[in-house]
Amino acid sequence: MARGGTNVPGRTRGTSHTPMISHLRRLGTRRARDERGSISVWFATASFAMIILVGMAVDLGGKVHTQQQARSAAAQAARTGAQDVQGSTAVRGEDLRVDLNAAKAAAQDYLHAAGVEGTARVVNGDTLIVTTTDTYTSKFLGIIGLDSMQVTGEASARLIRAEGGIER
Predict the structure, then answer these.
(1) pLDDT reading at 137 higher than 60
(2) What is the pLDDT of residues 14-70, one digit of tens each?
(3) Structural domains counted in the chain
(4) Which of 30, 116, 117, 142 is most exposed, with the fewest beta carbons within 10 Å of its own?
(5) Could you give the 3-state DSSP secondary structure of residue 165?
(6) Residue 15: inside a domain, yes or no?
């Protein structure tokens, strides 16, 4: 019987745990090798996600700004066109009426000068409605195939007659 242990046939003293330890060392080395680069994959995925989020914030903010400009241009064009009143009925004190052709032309001229595409139409003889369209070109979202976004704006101007602050 060997000192400090038991006699196990086929094994000599000092080698009883060696195969287990070498197996654990190999396993630990394999795990360390298997996990190499996992931080890089995570970082790349997280970076791509952050770029998409920042891109969405920038591009959706840009789209909202472009839409506000389209609405503003429509409102200004509607005001400009609605100022073209049929003089004969206004002077006689009758209903205020928009001069259809002059109002549409004035609104279109304003839109052309502002560099915005749009249409103008007169409803009920006293309301000019202007609809504009514009395109926002993406700065970041082109990465995922969203190169541009269409926006529209609409505004109307209605002629009223007021006496003493009361619509007549």
Answers:
(1) yes
(2) 555 566 666 666 665 555 556 666 678 888 899 988 988 888 899 999 999 999 999
(3) 1
(4) 30
(5) coil
(6) no
DSSP string, 1-68: --TTS---TT--TT-SSHHHHHHHHHHHHHHHHHHTTHHHHHHHHHHHHHHHHHHHHHHHHHHHHHHH
pLDDT at 145 over 80: yes
Residue reference for tokens 């000092």 = 14
Compute the average pLDDT of residues 87-96: 63
**Cα separations in angstroms, 98 against 1, 112, 167:** 119, 21, 17
pTM, entire model? 0.65
CA proximity to 122, closest of 77, 71, 167, 156: 156
Q: Is the dihedral of CA 135, 140, 141, 142 positive or negative?
A: positive
Residue 153 in any domain: the answer is yes
Domain span at residue 162 reads: 39-167
Examine residue 1 and state whether it is found in any structural domain, yes or no.
Answer: no
Question: Rounded to whole angstroms, how far apart are CA atoms 153 and 34?
Answer: 56
Q: Is residue 150 part of a domain?
A: yes
